[in-house]
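B., you asked whether I could sanity-check this one before it goes into the benchmark set. Here's the sequence:
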Amino acid sequence: MSRTSLISSALVGVIVMSACAEPPVASIDAASQAQTAAVAAGAEEYAPAAMARVAEARAALDAELAVQNERMALRRSYDRAEELATALQTAGEEAATETASAKEQVRVQATDLIAMVRMQATEVGDLLATAPAAKGTSADLAALRTDLETANTSLMEAETALLNQEFGSAH
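And here's what the prediction gave me:
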């Protein structure tokens, strides 16, 4: 075999090897991590529309990867898969951001509601403390005091939930 044909064969081998495209593993991993981070942040509860976009992006990427895997190795091209992985990563990051924003809104609302109810419970307690005990009202006042105790217990549970960032329970 001559030197020229040896070089030609090596060049053809290099071209054939480079033509066998590989999936964009790093991009797919980064996209998967963004999706996992969004789920871990609570996006399914606090940003369901954003998570729907993540699911759509994941489905599109998976479909494209399946199409490329069914092709002959020499005909595979993962350019579109790379684009879809980037779109999935972006969707995951946006879902995590929307989740943080939604959680903050719920935290503020829960804090405001708890403060308002706490103030009203204090006011009711003050009114009950000064309520005149007339004939036949003792049972009613006792029931109201029990209701107030129950409300105060619920307030403490809501405050604990808020401190633990369990916003749905606090709200």
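One thing to flag: The two ends are 81 Å apart (CA to CA). Otherwise nothing jumped out at me.
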